[in-house]
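TICKET: design request
STATUS: open
ATTACHED STRUCTURE:
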């Protein structure tokens, strides 16, 4: 399973990248706004900075919601760097835009996926990635991981090449479950990635080793 970091924060991206396990980055308008990125030039410069930090796919989301504007915006985003993947919302014009980008050699990540039907449509349109939002499904009282399992089954049976990108990850257990169920990618906030490091027995064991090392 590939690891992406889900943030627009350059320091966090660098910290995850320095671990040597990072395969890419996903952003969204909320994450970009959180970093104070405003205006077309600043947005493009920020994506360029992310592309220069990480050698992997970088999802950059369109802000418009009609076909013509999404295509125009996506073309500009894709021109920033070859690693840019244009992130498109799961709406009717979004599906049309994904198909247009597919036909024109531009890779896409279909975001805001909450059902198998939505993922099937995005895959049929040729999306490179679909992003099911695990945490938000859990928040609403359903089991987000059931969707990952269902998508893995459907995509395998149908031989879809679209990658399942588990998103809206809230903790380390989400990452483990996504790996278990065969997600192709998991995009995670930095604390969830670092959460994978933790085990009290590791801390206790290391403290003991360090204590005993003094006797060596
Ligand atoms: O990048 C999209 C997704 O990961 C959002 O996560 O935590 O806002 O539900 P969250």
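STATUS: resolved
RESOLUTION: sequence designed for all positions
ATTACHED SEQUENCE:
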């Amino acid at each position: 399973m590939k690891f992406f970091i889900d943030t627009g924060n350059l320091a966090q991206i660098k910290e995850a990248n320095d671990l040597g396990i990072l395969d890419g980055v996903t952003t969204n308008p909320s994450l970009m706004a959180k970093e104070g990125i405003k205006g077309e030039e600043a947005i493009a410069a920020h994506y360029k900075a992310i592309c220069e930090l990480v050698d992997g796919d970088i999802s950059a989301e369109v802000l418009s919601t009609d076909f013509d504007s999404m295509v125009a915006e996506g073309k500009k985003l894709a021109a920033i760097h070859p690693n840019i993947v244009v992130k498109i919302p799961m709406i009717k014009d979004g599906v049309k835009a994904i198909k247009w980008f597919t036909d024109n050699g531009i890779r896409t990540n279909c975001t805001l996926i909450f059902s198998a039907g939505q993922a099937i449509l995005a895959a049929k349109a040729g999306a490179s990635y679909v992003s099911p939002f695990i945490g938000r499904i859990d928040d609403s009282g359903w089991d987000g991981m059931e969707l990952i399992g269902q998508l893995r089954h459907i995509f395998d049976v149908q031989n879809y090449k679209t990658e399942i990108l588990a998103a809206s990850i809230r903790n380390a257990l989400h990452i483990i479950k996504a790996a278990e169920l065969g997600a192709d990618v998991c995009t995670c906030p930095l604390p969830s990635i670092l959460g994978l490091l933790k085990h009290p027995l590791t801390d206790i064991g290391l403290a003991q080793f360090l204590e005993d090392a003094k006797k060596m």
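CLOSING REMARK: Strands lie at 2-6, 24-26, 57-61, 84-89, 108-113, 129-132, 163-166, 185-188. The radius of gyration is 19 Å.
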